Amino acid sequence: MIRFEQATKYARTKGIKKPIIENASLTLNRGKSVGLLGRNGAGKSTLLRLIAGALKLDSGRIIRRGKISWPLGFSGSFQGSMTGEQNVRFVARIYGVNTEELIAYVEDFAELGPFFKAPVGTYSSGMKARLAFGLSMGVNFDYYLVDEITAVGDSNFKKKCQAVFQTKLRDSDLIMVSHSTGTIRDYCDCGVVLEKGKLTYYEDVEDAIRAHDKNMREN
Amino acid sequence: MTDVSPISTHLRVVGALLVREMATRFGSKPGGYVWALLDPAAHILLMTMIFRAIARAPALGTSFALFFATGYIAFQFYQAMTSYLNSAVRANKALLSYPNVAPIDTVVARFILQVLTTTLVAVIVLGTIVATMRVETNLHWPAILEAGAMACLFGLGVAMINAVLFLRYPLYEQVFNIVNRPLFLISGVFFLPDSIPAPYRELVLINPLVHIIMSFRQGFYPEYRAIGLDMTYLYGIAFLTLFAGMLVFTLSRKTLRNE
């Protein structure tokens, strides 16, 4: 379960203060995957980082029950000067999982070949996505936070993602950001629309998509 | 799950960061971490040779190498600490996207690594010099350890303040670098503050690094009287700075993560 209680967060850049969420209260229960919809720049990625705990709220709180992954995007969490393998080792250590098992899993999943032992800075975005995806799937979480990652990579990679998700989704839930409503439909049961600092929950993902489309038409 | 991560997580993360820092600090260069030791050792050797060519006799004792190396290494305990720790949070920014990793973990990891590194450099360089000297030297360990510890804690405090202020006020970073650079010349690495005439000596003694170096040298030169050395002043400044650093760092936790 993830619960927002009067959660407020503003984005501040160079004197401009913009609300991401304002006084939002919402409960997401276990057993349902959530699609997160909103226009460009609404703060969907920031919201994922808030849920993960990688960002702190300005006020209010988020109560988390269960293990939550870091936001799984194709650029964010890797240290460019470390090799793919070193990045995997690092994550294994900070999450306290077996290092060698995780390395074997990721090496097999990401299919980076010799690049697995090269600095991540030399990777293409597709390679980074494969590494990021394999890495987080190798650690068991109750919630996986996914930020557009299925959008990159070739069809082979997408097929692979689907296959892993199918098995993972038996025990874990997804919270997914995607501009592709097709992807949201495929993976999510319910939806949350983020618009002007407000979070609106829809039991049926189709309703969420309709509400989002309506928002988009209005502007 | 609460927002405060338990101690065991911090320990795991600091351990992982230590390995990461050691692996990437000298990254692609062959030899890797060995350079952390070789670089300052070579620097001291070179400076000693230059110094010996310029000056007729060291201000203390008979060995140029020992006089210069004691000053340089005591200074290095502070200098290497701040220059490495100033960027601890910034350099690990990507890793902060893992919610497990807290900004303070990056500082703690670099602090541990830097204390060990400078200590190893000190043992290698000073050990070699003392072992090869004709005159037997009696080391006074409490003075040496005290000076080293104060230099590390003072450096940690300065770096924690910097980590926050560099982010908030980019101009301050420029000012700090301008002020910090000549410190090497005025902290008593090359000279003894004891030999400076009265009104100027008081000015020189405001700099806490002068006291660190004097105390450190006392450990190697039992006959050194260190006029003006004030350990109470040194402890006061070091702990005050450390306290200020922890305060600023704690109050700015959110900013350190968000930036």
UniProtKB/TrEMBL annotation, chain A:
Task: Tell me if ATP-binding is a UniProt keyword of this record.
Answer: yes
User: What PROSITE patterns is this protein classified in?
Assistant: ABC_TRANSPORTER_1, ABC_TRANSPORTER_2
**Its Gene Ontology molecular function terms?**
ABC-type transporter activity; ATP binding; ATP hydrolysis activity
Taken from the record, one Pfam family name reads ABC_tran
Q: Does the keyword Transmembrane apply?
A: no
- Provide this UniProt record's keywords sorted from A to Z: ATP-binding, Nucleotide-binding, Transport
Domain (ABC transporter): residue spans on this chain: 2-219
Q: Which GO terms describe its cellular component?
A: membrane
Family label? Belongs to the ABC transporter superfamily.
Q: In its UniProt entry, what is this protein called?
A: ABC transporter ATP-binding protein
